[in-house]
Amino acid sequence: MALPARYKLVFFCPPTALPAIKTAIFSAGAGCYPGPGNYTECCFTTPGVGQFRPGDAANPNIGERGKLEEVGEVKCETLCVGRDVAVKAVEALKGAHPYEEPAYEVYKIEDL
Hints:
It is elongated and about 55 Å long. A four-stranded antiparallel beta sheet has the order 2-3-1-4. Helix 1 runs antiparallel to helix 2 (83-96). It is α+β, with helices and mostly antiparallel strands. It has helices at 18-27, 83-96; strands at 6-13, 44-52, 69-81, 103-109. It is built from two helices and four strands. The two termini are 16 Å apart.
């Protein structure tokens, strides 16, 4: 029997926004590992520095239009089992994230 496709959701956010975003994506089904342990709300977070320059039409949550910004952010990675869970988690991420344009990536995981 084939297992559902697995996806890795990776996103970047201010550290203060992380708890609300995690609550939203976990409520959408992200962070669950299949298997007998029934692990939920699993993720890995690393700190870093994000850089961006808001354009003329931007409405930035942090910084000013036209000014280069460097801000402390965190990178959070989690598993989504099934494409539907990945889609719901991205929708939840966008709804909970404070940025005008959240930075995120979704990767399909291969079974080897």
